[in-house]
Amino acid sequence: MVHTCVVPHIHLSYQWSPDGADRTADTSPLQHPLMNLLQAVRSSGSIAMAAKALGLSYRHVWGELKRWEGVLGQDLIVWEKGQAARLTELANKLLWAERQAQARLAPQISTLQAELEKTFALAFDPDSQVLALYASHDDALVQLRERAASQRLHLDIRFCGSVDAIRALNEGRCTVAGFHAPIQPSADSLMARTLAPLMQTGRHKLISFAVRSQGLMVRPGNPLQLTRWDDLLRTGLRFVNRSLGTGTRLLLDDWLQSKGTAPEQVPGYTREESSHAAVAAAIAAGQADTGLGIEAAARAQGLDFVPLLTERYWLVCLRDALPTDPVKQLMALLSSQGWQTQLNTLAGYQVPSDTGQVQSLKASLPWW
Predict the structure, then answer these.
(1) Contact by Cβ (8 Å): 321, 203
(2) Average pLDDT of 127-139?
(3) Distance CA 147, CA 142 (A)
(4) What is the pLDDT of residues 153-173, one digit of tens each?
(5) Which residue stretches of the chain are H helix?
(6) This prediction's pTM
(7) Which of 10, 35, 309, 325 has its C-alpha lying 20 to 30 A from 104's C-alpha?
(8) In which band, very low, low, confident or very high, does the pLDDT at 24 lie, cut at 50, 70 and 90?
(9) Torsions phi, psi of 216, nearest 5?
(10) What is the 3-state secondary structure (H, E, C) of 301-321?
(11) Residue 23, SS3?
């Protein structure tokens, strides 16, 4: 087949589903039918089995693959009679590019999804509650948004770094902010010195949300045997970092400062990704050896996880917002047995005993 250069043009669309039907936590919010076909073929090694997994006919899957080969001007499947179906180099590259793009854009896609849901929720049900929430990207919050929507509470989530989230709260751009921090950082740590000036006793109130693990995301089997912070200083290690202003980046910088170690001693320190999912995708694709993140993101990409610390993920709002209906509804949802059971099933998460309850800065953040 003659190879031609095809420059793709991207067109976005969205679908409606009643009451969250056909929506699952592990389903990407953006999907392409070709990628679904290629992934099914790679997973099953057979056109027939791929068709069965997708609930489609063999003829349809075969025809679609041939059609896409015509569109792209290149083979997607190694068509060898009597042999298991294999993806060509191009097809594997397409799957990798799609996975990386999805991971990198996860916070922005989630924001767009929240904006659309909020807009249509108000159109269909003007009595529904809307709560603006800026937060550090978190898998549990994505699931919470789904559960809240079924109860007529629409979380208008904007994912950003922990520092930017609290600043947005202070500037009146949201009602609730989400941030994470180690359970017991020292008062002179970088984390404490960065977050403490952003909150004031009497003005800000914490809402307990979750306990989660942060650690090293590594390839299956942990071939480099990475087990501790100091392993990040190994010569030749390919590390991928989080963006400046994120809580995870603060964790790394805090550790470096505590050791008196310069950032450039971490190979790959300057390479950044915008989310836990994007870091995990880079490792899964073989572009990096490790990166800091949460266990749920590692497991979603089929990676292993080495826990380094346990942290609290907090929601924070201004005291005056506590008696408002959306915030009261949020706290009731967090305190519900249904939500707590769901949170316990998420890898690397634990439900604190005070979930959904209001906490003071002094009592809950002794380092503050």
Answers:
(1) no
(2) 88
(3) 9
(4) 989 898 888 999 999 999 999
(5) 33-44, 47-54, 58-72, 89-124, 139-149, 162-170, 190-195, 247-259, 276-284, 295-300, 325-335, 337-344, 361-364
(6) 0.71
(7) 309
(8) very low
(9) -95, 125
(10) CCCEEEEEEEEEEEEEEEHHH
(11) coil
Residue 98 to residue 53: CA distance in whole angstroms? 20
| HSE-up of residue 331 (Cα within 13 Å, Cβ side) | 19
CB 219 within 8 A of CB 289: yes
CB 313 within 8 A of CB 212: yes
Q: Which residue has the higher pLDDT, 19 or 43?
A: 43
Q: Which domains does the chain have, with CATH numbers?
A: 29-87 (1.10.10.10), 172-364 (3.40.190.10)
pLDDT tens sequence across 283-308: 998 999 999 999 999 999 999 999 99
Residue 83 CB neighbour total at 10 angstroms: 9
| Token couple for 355 | 């979930």
Give the residue carrying structure tokens 């320190």.
Answer: 269
Q: Greatest CA span in the chain, whole angstroms?
A: 73
Distance CA 163, CA 196 (A): 10
Q: 146 falls in which pLDDT band (50, 70, 90)?
A: confident
Q: How far apart are CA 310 and CA 307, in angstroms?
A: 8
289 is written with which tokens? Answer: 């050896």
Q: How many CB atoms lie within 10 A of CB 225?
A: 9
Q: 91, exposed or middle or buried, with CB in 10 Å at 0-12, 13-18, 19+?
A: buried
Report how far residue 36's alpha carbon sits from residue 101's, in angstroms, rounded to the nearest whole number: 15
Q: How confident is the model at residue 141 (pLDDT cuts 50, 70, 90)?
A: very high
Give the residue carrying structure tokens 């010569």: 235
| DSSP element (H, E) containing 178 | strand 176-182
